[in-house]
Amino acid sequence: MFNGITIEKLLLIALIAGMIIGPQRLPRYAAALGQFVRRARDFARSAGSRVKEEMGEDFDDVDWRTLDPRQYDPRRIIREALLDDPPTPPVKAQSATMAAAGAAAGATTTSTKAPPLAVGEIPPFDAEAT
Predict the structure, then answer these.
(1) Cα of 105 vs its chain's centroid, Å
(2) Taking a C-beta distance cutoff of 8 angstroms, is the pair 95, 103 a contact?
(3) Which residue among 17, 63, 113, 114 is buried most deeply as judged by most CB within 10 Å?
(4) Do 48 and 56 touch, CB atoms closer than 8 A?
(5) Tens digits of per-residue pLDDT, 94-121?
(6) Is 72:65 a contact under the CB 8 Å cutoff?
(7) Which three-class secondary structure state does DSSP give residue 18?
(8) Buried (b) or exposed (e) across 38-71, using 16+ Cβ within 10 A?
(9) Phi, psi angles (nearest 5°) of residue 14
(10) Residue 9 to residue 66: CA distance in whole angstroms
(11) Does the pLDDT value for residue 91 go beyond 60?
(12) What's the pTM value of the predicted model, to 2 decimals?
């Protein structure tokens, strides 16, 4: 999370900052840091309360553990998505060709072709279709 910053490095940074700032200005900067932390905490609390207020009763119904981005594993998501659909049984070649032939025969009997237009004739226009 901190990309290699350890406690020792933080203490060294704090020691160097204390030496640079000096003993006269150190209390003022420490107070400013404390005030910043308090404001950030208040902002986070108010944001949380606003979310609860805007979501209403639905806020308690949300399962926050499932929405945690740390548990998203792309491989698991893809695996689950692929396993959700039940496998279709293989179709025999003979029955597939018969079904295709039956569908083609049914399609020719139910569909009617429009007669060809004469030269210079304007095709019909359907305003609702465009």
Answers:
(1) 45
(2) no
(3) 17
(4) no
(5) 555 555 555 555 555 555 677 888 888 8
(6) no
(7) helix
(8) eeeeeeeeeeeeeeeeeeeeeeeeeeeeeeeeee
(9) -65, -40
(10) 35
(11) no
(12) 0.42
